[in-house]
Amino acid sequence: MKSRPLRELNADNLTTLRVVQDFLQRNQDYLDAVVSAEGTIYVVEDRENRRLERALFDLVNAELGGARTVHVSPIEFSNWHRAEALQQHSADLEFSSNRMLLHVLEEAVSDQASDIYIDILRDTCYVSMRRYGFKRPFSNLSREDGLRLATSVFSMGGSTDFQQGRPCDCAFDFEFDEHLYRVRVNSVKDTRGNSLTCRIRDPHFVLPLERCGYSSRQIDHINRLCHAPGGLIVLSGETNSGKSSSLASLILREPDTRKIIEIADPVEVEFEHCTHIEINKYGEHPEHELREVLAAVVRQNPDVLVLGEIRDRMTADAAADMAIQGKRVYATVHTQSCISVFPRLSNLGIPSDLLHHPSFLAGCVNQNLVPLTCQRCALPEAADPADARRMRELFSGAGLKYVNPEGCGHCRYGVAGQTLVAEVFPLALDRSGRAHQLISARDYGGLQQHMREQFGVLSKHQHAARKIIAGLIDPLLTENIIGEFIAADLLPHPVPALQPPAVERSA
Prior knowledge:
Layout: H1 18-26, E1 33-35, E2 40-44, H2 50-64, E3 68-72, H3 74-84, H4 90-110, E4 115-120, E5 125-131, E6 134-141, H5 143-157, E7 168-176, E8 179-190, E9 193-201, H6 216-227, E10 231-237, H7 243-253, E11 260-264, E12 274-278, H8 286-300, E13 304-307, H9 313-324, E14 328-334, H10 341-347, H11 352-355, E15 361-373, H12 385-394, E16 415-425, H13 434-440, H14 444-455, H15 460-469, H16 475-482
Parallel strand pairs: 2-3, 10-14, 10-15, 11-12, 11-13, 13-14
Antiparallel strand pairs: 1-2, 4-5, 4-9, 5-6, 7-8, 8-9, 15-16
């Protein structure tokens, strides 16, 4: 007899054999399973319980004959279980929610997702994941299951409870395949419920600077900036632009002969040669805690200070105080370009006379992550004829490649990874003082032109154009991320060899 799907099972078509019921009741804490009357076993796969799963199969086969096993996800099992057993004890519900959370986390890690999104609305919950910059649906839940899932997320964080009415954060580690991953969670209230974002990070995954996707000239400029005496180096970009990964790459290259201190919220990657200090911005007195930490850091006399992000007056003052003392300071800032770093720092409280001081700001990097086009299934033409014509006119003679949304067995939806497009302002290398004069005059257009003429600095669009001409990235997807291309972005430059950079797994 043909078995029914799990969602169609009910009390009438479940097995009533006492021996099977006894087995499931004895092992309910270890095995989520249900058996249909015709011998189909629907079971949540669990590597640690394969022996029990096999024992159940043998039992059902002996009693009913023709047994077969169908593996289902914890979410599928939970949805069925809720419909059939609304009177479950709260302990059972909590256990089921924790299993569901672990399933979602493991699926995200297996799929190399950088973020999990849990959107709890009035009468439903959508779970989705971001991979290589694209958000994709994963599963739908009931609102009640979504709230329990959110509670399980924050229970793993330990010190913070999930609060539906206000923003809250937490962070925790979890192990999968004998490897430890770090999750950073933020929840905000939506007009219809709550929105949770879980950022997943492999704390041991750090790319050397040379493999991040910068051009050879950009790497040379960054290396020279890092060898310059002191000053602030700012890594800027939007959310999901790879700033944290690049910051970790800079820490990695610092020698262990230097005293390095990082202050972050939270710490994402730990290094043996670095002192990591974590600040909880949702604690009782976060400003007081940060003030005490900064005072202690001065007494530690570090050679290098790493600030996870300059986000307010206090962190801006800390960066300024250490940089002007001749210390090396690394920090991130949310901006869309190098020239927007200066007004951003000014808005955060950096005085104008300090902003253009030669000893303060050593250099700026601005970057975005863009999808790498799968070389096996890429399309030679854009789907829209108007787009195809415009790109042919802009990139005349280039072998353009577009992402194939159908994908193939070697990619996901035509995307094979991510790479950086960036611009680098090596301010500390300008001995003429012209760059800092232009910053003082707030002539940021003139500064950009000076950087191009004096140091051959590529704009972010020019850097992207090189990778487009090489067939590495889709010009239309790239425009969606960094803005529209114009003819001035496409100055003559050599075409690089077709060598895709290493895949960047998290932002």
